[in-house]
From TrEMBL:
Pfam hit, one: adh_short
GO MF annotations, alphabetized: oxidoreductase activity, acting on the CH-OH group of donors, NAD or NADP as acceptor
InterPro entries named among the record's database cross-references: NAD(P)-bd_dom_sf, SDR_fam
Statement: the UniProt record of this protein carries the keyword Lipid metabolism: no
Protein name: SDR family NAD(P)-dependent oxidoreductase
Keywords tagged on the record: Oxidoreductase
Family as reported in the entry's similarity comment: Belongs to the short-chain dehydrogenases/reductases (SDR) family.
Native source species: Iamia majanohamensis
Amino acid sequence: MQELVTKVAVVTGAGSGMGRAMARRFAAEGMRVALADVDAEPLEETGRMIVEAGTAADDVLARLTDVASESEVDALADLVFDTWGQVDLLVNNAGVFVGGFLWERPAADLQFVLGPNLWGILHGIRAFVPRMIAQGTEGHIVNTVSAAGLLGTPYAGPYSISKFAAFAATEALASDLEAIGSPLKVTALCPGMVDTNIATRSERHRPPELATETTDDRAFVSDMLAEVTAQGIDPAAVAEMVVDAVRAERFVQLTHDMYVPALKERGEALAAGVLPARGEFGDAPA
């Protein structure tokens, strides 16, 4: 999809980090943008930033949305289609982090991380894609996966599980759309180290019914993640890559070339029937 002016973009997790950066970048391209996030104040702030940068207020929508909720994602889709009659770019970006050893993690931790990271994507696909297909026009779906959805990472089992599943969903979507001859294209955005607040804000979004005690392994990996992401690239740089990926119809968008050799080595290891080499956590994707 080359021309973005007046097209409609939907971005979940738009209240901070990569979601905010992508929403602002799409608006700068002349797109109308629908913003969704679970935090009201950051969501409103993103909308203000976009309007203050020159986008007409009528070209910005914002809706408080928990993407782990099917009904809330349905309501978001209804709002956007009722307002603008179309969606051309869907970015399923919202996500949280839960780390630690798998044998230490209660089921509630897995339920929490799978909510936005996997079900948020699946709800987005089901709520938006059928109507995007019915439009009969070109369009694009970007799912924020992670380099942790391509490469195994120590101490990050719950997160990696959610992201490997997110990649599988993204590949399945792309394959299905190709099978029916749809002009819609798909990108799996696989960021590495990006300067976001995922390590510090994730627990604030945990539903009370999924509360668990913090264990040493989970605290360790959260602290390490905060340190690593603080040294990461600017989310605005990721937004530029996403615009380029949409225009180039690129299926996988990495943010760091350093993962390419590891991906090749992983493929060779799996083909040989052996466990891929374990990366150092200091190099772990975020």
